[in-house]
Amino acid sequence: MTPITDEVSAASVALRALEPLRLLSTSCVDPIGGELIIDVAVDHWASAADSANTAGLHYFDFLTAYVHDYQLDVLVHLCAPSVVHGLFIRTHVPSVGSLATLTSIYPGANWHERESAEMFGLAFDGHPDPRHMLLPDDFQGHPLLKSYALNPRVNQPWPGEVEPADPNARPRTRRKSLPPGVLAEWSMDDDETPVTP
């Protein structure tokens, strides 16, 4: 029998306090690592994070986004030092959607939301500082979206085409291949046929 310790009782109190999240969620998944993933609708995003904070999960670990089936999935990981496992809250945002900011609940979300806004084009309603932090202000596009063309890879020669020691050397003959992130139709020269990956 497992002895009741402060850590075990803190975990059970936190899990009981998460019951309001179950009412907001569309599904709950318990993956192999023991971390609970709760899917919530976009309009319940901030209230789910607030419920987790009320339940004792005061530590904001990270917030990230990824493209899944032509929509953005946004994931936040919350935990508490006294609880062994944390909690993931996930929502599915349409391609031109927005989310409520979590900065009033978790101030540490500021940087993560700014990065997700820049890289994925996701808007966070009510964010206190929506300025760019990684890219220039005049930068066009969102680099981590799959629809974003990696222009430097298209417009610049791929490294290794000519040996750097001899500027007059003839390019090595090898099978034409495309750099990562470049589609065949983007890199076709006038005398080339399209390259199939």
Could you explain how this protein is built, in words?
It is a single chain. The protein is of the alpha/beta class and about 200 residues long. It has 2 domains: about 5-125, Beta Polymerase, domain 2 (2-Layer Sandwich); about 150-160 and about 175-195, no CATH class. It is about 25% helix and about 20% strand. The protein contains 5 helices and 7 strands.
Radius of gyration from the alpha-carbon trace, in angstroms: 23 Å
Total helical segments: 5
Quick one: biggest sheet? 5 strands, mixed
Shape: elongated
- Name of the CATH superfamily of the largest domain: NADH:ubiquinone oxidoreductase Nqo5 subunit
Total number of domains: 2
What structural category characterises the helix and strand content?
alpha/beta
Q: Which second-level CATH architecture of the largest domain applies? A: 2-Layer Sandwich
Mean pLDDT: 76
Query: Regarding quaternary structure, how should these chains be classified?
Result: single chain
Show unreliable segments.
1-11
Order of helices and strands: HHEEHEEEEHEH
- Strand fraction band? 15-25%
Span between N and C termini?
58 Å
Q: Count of DSSP E strands?
A: 7
Main β-sheet, spatial strand arrangement: 1-2-5-4-3
Helix percentage range: 10-25%
